[in-house]
Amino acid sequence: MALNERIPTDVDRIAEQWVDTAVELNPTLGTYIGRAESDSRFGDYSPEGLERSAEAVRRTIAALDAATPVDEVDIVTVADLRSELVLDLESHEAGLPLRNLNVIASPAQELRDVFDLMSTEGPDDWATISTRLAALPAALDGYIETLRLGIERGVVPAKRQVREVAAQARKHERSDGFFGEFVGGAPESLPDALRRDLDARAQGAGAAYGRLAEFLEQELLPSAGERDAVGREHYALQSRRFLGAVIDLDETYEWGIEELARMVAEQEAIAKEILRGAPSAGSGNVVAEAIAFLDGDPSRKLHGTDALQRWMQETSDRAVAELGATQFDIPAEIRTLECLIAPTQEGGIYYTGPTDDFSRPGRMWWSVPEGVTEFDTWRELTTVYHEGMPGHHLQIGQAVVNRGKLNTWRRQLAGTSGHAEGWALYAERLMQELGYLDDPADRLGMLDGQRMRAARVVLDIGVHLGKQRPDGEGAWTGEYAYEFLRGNVNMNDGFVRFEVNRYLGWPGQAPSYKVGQRIWEQLRDEFRRREGDAFDIREFHRRALDLGGVGLDTLRSALLG
Crossing angle, helix 493-505 and helix 159-173, to 10 degrees? Predict the structure, then answer.
């Protein structure tokens, strides 16, 4: 046994068993974490399936309560896993699964999105895909049963979400929609029988999405809620889900307003610095003028995806080398980060972690939309730090390095959006503090994202809790949310509309980034205060990241006691 390994405990075995159970109940989760044995199936999305899942949660809570932690690792595992499972039960008993429909992260998307993660390298992979395609109609039928039960009990999503998801489902229904395109890309060398099965099952999957759309349009929409707001009780549950922490929602709303004002003031000051000596466009919007000025600067542009990939890799490599010498103890296993252009063209930038054995390293992906050939480095420098080093790659990669100490649940399933995205925003600000964003243009790019995340805190809490608008003109509404976000982001209207629809249907998720950053910074500052002259930033980072993914309340108790 390696020196950094520990003998698995009863608590570890309970956590490992929970991972097995979770994968059995939800095979799409298994695909996400690389459990290939689950790739041919879907879970049971019916009310009966939900009840089986709830019963499994109850059994696991009972097992944790009966176990005796033997060390600090166990104490963290019990606290974090139990907290998550208790929240699962509270959400189940509140009926949240009966209204689980939104534009980005509900079963309507999960059942399609899982195919993006499946291997397509050979005939065996395509045979597995074919089997899962055959299982998709039953999974959607179970989901419809659950939503239908929600109608009976008066637990329904908002009309806006129903309309949007019905439109998504109609796209999947088409013969030239996702499923037809997906199997159409299978190798011509596949056996004829397999190709026929793929074609037929893709048609069946599309037809199943058509039935979902019909149910949404004909049955759910007439019964769905008129208001976008979910209310305080529902919102508090979802906020805990995404943060792993209990926060004062009213105080956080007021803080969000103050933080947004601070971001705007900081942006405007930097914009004036950028424009010093430049001719004014006379628009009166100094930030917009600075953005236009930078967008016209050829020295800040990259041409083509090859140049973008090289710049990403060079930026990442430099950050790894320099930060490893000053701020972080970076293990050798994660000093490699591959920066790649994604095979899709959806516009996202994202990170995928390394495999447990590091045979596949951590990777940062840029999904470049079709037709986009120019890229502005001032906008995206902070994104490389957010997704790569010292952001998600250091955080997630460190958990994998600690496989000798952390069980599978701690490495692969634990943690929250507030922990992960909060750390990545913390990493952006840290890079500013360390001098990596001294160029005012690069700082403006960082603040562009930070301003949007502050705006999301105000919007999300405001609309769902029915708070008074910051302008004093009455209570929040969904329509005002569009106007508010449009005034705080440098994005087109299509992006703004999708983002607001996402916030309205996925309460508590969007604020978790900025609120998570706030909690990370509070913990660091309190840790520094307690340590006094002995404070070492490397030690703080090491202790925090060695825990792996955890809820933010667990992080606080583990670091500060």
Answer: 110
Is 531 within the bounds of a domain? no
Residue 297 Ramachandran class (φ > 0 left, ψ -120 to 50 alpha, else beta):
beta
Identify the DSSP state of 387. Answer: H
Alpha-helical runs (H) found in 94-218: 107-113, 123-153, 159-173, 178-184, 192-215
Residue 130 in any domain: the answer is yes
Q: Are residues 356 and 453 in the same domain?
A: yes
pLDDT for the residue numbered 412: 86
Which residues are 375's β-sheet partners? 302
Please write the tens of the pLDDT for every residue from 337-354: 999 998 767 677 888 888
Residue 533 lies in a domain: no
The tokens of 432 are what?
Answer: 């500013």
* CA count, 13 A, side-chain hemisphere, 285: 11
Q: How many CA atoms lie within 13 A of 550 on its CB side?
A: 26
Calculate Rg over the CA atoms of the chain.
24
| Residue whose tokens read 């029988």 | 193
Which pLDDT value is given to residue 490? Answer: 81
Helix%, strand%, coil% for the chain, nearest 5: 70, 5, 30
Q: Is the pTM of this model over 0.85?
A: yes
- Residue 526 has φ and ψ, to the nearest 5°, of -70, -40
